[in-house]
HNH nuclease domain-containing protein (Geodermatophilus aquaeductus), 387 residues
Amino acid sequence: MRSGELGGGDVLDDVAAVVAERNRQDARLARLVRAAELSQAPERDGQKSMTSWLRGHCRLSGPEASRLVRNGRALRLPALAEAHDAGLVSSAQVAEAARAVTPQRLSSAAAQGVDLAVIDAVFTEVAMERPHGDLVQVVQRYLDDLDPDGPEPDPTEQRSLTLSKHADGSLSIRGELDAVGGERLQAALEAHVQADRPAGDERTRAQRLGDALVQLCDNALSSGSLPITRGVRPQVIAKIGLEDLATGSGTAEMGFGAVISAARARWLACDGAVSRVVFGPDGAPLDLGREHRLATRHLRRAAELRDGGCVFAGCSAPTHWCDVHHLVHWIDGGATSLENSALLCERHHTKVHHGFRVERQPDGAWHTWRPDGSQISTPAPLLAPVA
């Protein structure tokens, strides 16, 4: 059927029907997430919260996972929940209402004798009958009335920074700063912008600020004044084969997972230390330089290169959050060796010492088992298509 043969009204009716069905499915998902949270179900898979479980097992972004958890909590407003179940209210609208039912705001409402049933009815009516922007304003007006003087400003609550990594390893940066924090950042960046203005510079203002931010990081890393993470000074890492380094062909892998060209790695090596690490056929580092006996820092470097982060199923904690765990505890005769080591974040290191188990397979893949002997699999089985 050609597009012109289908009446416009039919298409729009179909769109409206699908949107309503999506709203109903979003409501069902939010309820399931809330039930899982209340029953502490994520603990079964060694996760601390539903937010972390959704990120690790369902591949949701951090903001989307957090919003889904908050929406589940917001369904304590019965009228709004019923409208969401019926497909009349979207998950985005529920997310707006969720701002009003945080524990702190519920406590303030109770102290002031606010009738939540009335608030629920107003939110639901606006969500069903008026544009999305009107609901945003109504919720904000309620929050302002709930605390007309406003809380004593906490700068940490106004600060956020999100780094979104793209396929080529580049980053998109999005964030917010309070007034004082923003002033500090602008002062630091402007110092570099004004100090680096060569004749004929055709960079835009945005490009100069980007270069200034990278220069700030370079200065901090080279000064040696940054906090030590897991016994290792923060540094830029590029992993590359010796032949590729010599010839400038091939690629190199950065410490946070970005892949760069061998030529770029050669450029980095001109102004950095080069450490020799020889890998065996199974991808495990064998020779870590001049030391005959593996020192702690060498063993850690080897584990970081091999594992790339926490090996517990569903966890994406980076290497600098992790401990080097003995698969067979040293007190039970386990050797301090790479073969007997695994990188685990603090939470999952604790879990493994309380019944969970991780094991590296011959193909290099890590598997995780619960205390009852069942295996944790990702993606979660519930994501499989229904026959």
Residues 8-38 form the longest helix (31 residues). The first strand starts at residue 160 and ends at 165. Residues 71 and 94 are 6 Å apart (CA to CA).
